[in-house]
Amino acid sequence: MPELPEVETLRRELDRAVKNKIIKSVEVRWPKLVKPLSANIFSKKLIGQKIISTDRRAKILLLKLSKGDKKTRDGFLAIHLKMTGQLIFRPKKGRLVIGGHPLPPPPNLPLGQGEGLNSNLPHKHTHIIINFTDGSTLYFNDIRKFGWLKIFDAKSLEKLSAEFGPEALSDQFNLKKFQEILKKYPNQKIKQLLTDQKLIAGIGNIYADESCFCAGIRPTRLVKDIKLSEINKLLLCFKKTLKLAISKGGTSSDTYVKLNGQPGGFVPYLKVYGRQGEKCKKCQGLVEKIRLNGRGTHFCRSCQK
């Protein structure tokens, strides 16, 4: 699943692709993805809407619409890619612009050198089609159908936002706030806490592993056993790591590409994630992988205590 850097990368690229475009028509091929609205009502609410701006809350993309409810005038189209969701923007003329989870390329054609199943859109994994008045189209594909698109007014969006913790990169999320969260869960393993979206929004498996390595903290450490100096270092580490990942366009493993179809550039900067059995870049020991609360977890036994 894309984490904060990947979703933020998509948001910035989506902003350039669809901002100020007006929705002409909407086709919902898998109604469950737009619940609780029916496919017909979902489509009617979007037709004629102009995309004013883009935003992000945790791992959710937000498109602000020109027409909201009667009271607040604020309306938003929220998109969650979940495990296998993919956004594809096709301009009136030109090549596809792909973001999210790549579908497999044709035989003998490596990812990045072709558009795979997306060379012939729409296809069996295309579930939502949004056509704009300028002739361009935004497709939502999802092999596993876990993703969703929903329309929110300001009040309902605020309710959704309240389900998540503070944004990991926000100025409000400082050492004091971090300590407040940690004190509530002294017996929780630090990685488990970092990846709980209800406590901190945006950090997932990749960046929790990388941040713990940066801070020299083993991901299995209990919160109560971590010193204040280590807490401060961990805070600085995950903010630094997230910012660097955003600047590189995110991390592409086997599931993520940017909106322009190219892989994210953070992979060469990974210190432990996905490097099990390889030499640690710091001490030359071996990077290990264990299962922690159902998640693959990577660390260096020598560098992290």
UniProtKB/TrEMBL annotation:
Which protein family is named in the record? Answer: Belongs to the FPG family.
Q: How does it assemble?
A: Monomer.
Keywords, ordered alphabetically: DNA damage, DNA repair, DNA-binding, Glycosidase, Hydrolase, Lyase, Metal-binding, Multifunctional enzyme, Zinc, Zinc-finger
**One Pfam family in the UniProt entry:** H2TH
Q: GO molecular-function annotation terms?
A: 8-oxo-7,8-dihydroguanine DNA N-glycosylase activity; class I DNA-(apurinic or apyrimidinic site) endonuclease activity; damaged DNA binding; zinc ion binding
Tell me the domain of life.
Bacteria
Query: Which cofactors?
Result: Zn(2+)
Q: Which InterPro entries match?
A: FPG_cat (IPR012319), FPG_Glyclase (IPR020629), FPG_N (IPR035937), H2TH_FPG (IPR015886), Ribosomal_uS13-like_H2TH (IPR010979), Znf_DNA_glyclase/AP_lyase (IPR000214), Znf_FPG/IleRS (IPR010663)
Protein name in the entry: Uncharacterized protein
What's the source species' lineage?
A: Bacteria, Candidatus Buchananiibacteriota
One record GO biological process: base-excision repair
Mind telling me which SUPFAM superfamilies this protein's record contains?
Glucocorticoid receptor-like (DNA-binding domain), N-terminal domain of MutM-like DNA repair proteins, S13-like H2TH domain
Keyword rRNA-binding on entry = no
Formamidopyrimidine-DNA glycosylase catalytic domain: from which residue to which, for each copy?
2-147
Q: Which positions fall inside the FPG-type domain?
A: 271-305
What catalytic activity does the UniProt entry give for this protein? 2'-deoxyribonucleotide-(2'-deoxyribose 5'-phosphate)-2'-deoxyribonucleotide-DNA = a 3'-end 2'-deoxyribonucleotide-(2,3-dehydro-2,3-deoxyribose 5'-phosphate)-DNA + a 5'-end 5'-phospho-2'-deoxyribonucleoside-DNA + H(+); Hydrolysis of DNA containing ring-opened 7-methylguanine residues, releasing 2,6-diamino-4-hydroxy-5-(N-methyl)formamidopyrimidine
Q: Which organism is it from?
A: Candidatus Buchananbacteria bacterium RIFCSPLOWO2_01_FULL_39_33
